[in-house]
Write a structure and sequence with these properties.
The chain has helices at 2-49, 53-59, 62-77, 110-128, 141-161, 174-186, 209-213, and strands at residues 82-88, 91-97, 135-138, 166-168, 190-194, 201-205. With 214 residues, it is of the alpha+beta class.
């Protein structure tokens, strides 16, 4: 009796289980059919919402990279200053200025500005992989340096007028040599760069006699 009863119960259970599985199968198949599309749509939505970090990095140009680096240096040195970025003839110019009372003068001396400029160029090059030619000005240091170059040119011209065939100026960067060339040309004198590497400098000379007559 117990064996027949158990067989009947198992058959009933198996039948009910089969019917339940058959009833659930369409829903499972429907879920399986919809789920990949749903996941793909959700992933696309998440990607649209997330910022494109690669695109943001591509938008960072030389000026932005330099400004971020200089701001960190100012914070480390506890110096107040405002940054201005400009681009002229393919070269980036970054100026650090301050209104009213400021301790910016701590970083505005020629040697310090030159060192900061080199460090900033290296920071830009490290991120972009390209050589940087940016010019840094701190508290008007660029204008002050131009005045110094003007004085050097005036002295060189005086030496030539006193009988010297040529007058050599101290070694300087390509940017400063360009300024010297312009200053010499404005005074009617010829100039050329000589030397290699850190020893490269500008030499002034009077124009030829026929050029003076013209």
């Amino acid at each position: 009796m117990s064996t027949e009863h158990t067989g009947t119960d198992d058959a009933g259970t198996d039948g009910a289980s089969t019917e339940q599985q058959d009833a659930e199968r369409p829903e499972a198949e429907a879920v399986e059919a919809v789920e990949p599309e749903t996941i793909a749509e959700a992933q696309d939505a998440e990607l649209e919402d997330e910022p494109d970090e690669d695109a943001e990095d591509e938008d960072r140009d030389e000026g932005d990279i330099a400004a971020d680096y200089i701001e960190e240096l100012l914070d480390i040195a506890d110096v107040d200053g405002d940054l201005e970025i400009d681009e002229q003839n393919g070269r980036t110019y970054v100026s650090v200025t301050a209104d009213g009372e400021s301790n910016l003068s701590k970083l505005s001396s020629g040697p310090v500005v030159e060192a900061l400029q080199q460090l900033t160029r290296l920071a830009v090059q490290a991120e972009t992989g390209e050589f940087s030619r940016l010019i840094l000005d701190v508290g008007g240091s660029r204008d002050a340096r131009r005045r110094e170059l003007e004085e050097l040119v005036v002295r060189a011209v005086q030496r030539i007028e006193e009988g010297a065939a040529t007058a050599a100026l101290p070694p300087m960067s390509s940017y400063e040599r360009k300024i010297v060339h312009d200053l010499a040309a404005d005074r009617g004198y010829l100039s050329e760069s000589e030397g290699e590497g850190r020893d490269r400098h500008t030499v002034l000379q009077a124009p030829a006699a026929d050029e003076q007559q013209d």
